[in-house]
Amino acid sequence: MKRSDINKQIVNAKKMFDSISFKLPAFANWTPQEWKEKGSEVDEIVENALGWDVTDYGLGDFNKTGLFLFTIRNGNYNMRSKYPKGYAEKIMIVKENQLCPMHFHWKKREDIINRGGGILSIKLYKADAKEELGYEDFSVSIDGVRHDLKAGDIVRLNPGESICLEPFIYHSFTGEGADVIVGEVSDVNDDANDNRFHETMGRFPKIEEDEEPLHLLCTEYREWQK
Length: 226
Description:
The chain is built from 4 helices and 11 strands. The protein is mainly beta and 226 residues long. The chain has a single domain, classed as Sandwich (Jelly Rolls). Strands 1, 2, 3, 4, 5, 6, 7, 8, 9, 10 and 11 form an 11-stranded antiparallel β-sheet that branches. A hairpin with a 2-residue loop joins β6 and β7. The model has no long low-confidence stretch (mean pLDDT 96).
């Protein structure tokens, strides 16, 4: 992705979050220069990958396949004594007709919430023993109500509605009718080790530096602190 495109997505996200009065923590607005001045006091942000995250999954077409995320809080399975939180929270944006690709998590249980905008359309399968798309029936909880599903069923969430996704439940999602602001409340998030994509792809983009970053992404802090 071009840095200029990432910057544009961040500006757009701020406007969308403001439209539903969703406020981000102060570090969301730190500039790269401010990051250079930070020390060990921000280790929790750095080591738990809090902050801005824009990805095209390495496929080069963000508007077709991609996701915009901001991780607000998170624990760390590899540093439990230092960061004992057992939970995480994200706010995301999936564009109208943009696909967040099919994947599941081995460890993470998550509530996916439509916070505003269009309809969040989620396609679901239960993984089989070989971690492929399974064909057996399964059930999910949608706002506390159990729903029995068949492989490949689509659940559509209106603003305010949410679904609980257990580990090994494959899911992909997109926005219908408009861009969708998506909340996530979950167990600890570990993007480096707890994503099983159905098709091989990367989690983070390669960046073409065509202009200066407006804000750093959650994977870039250490480079700017050197």
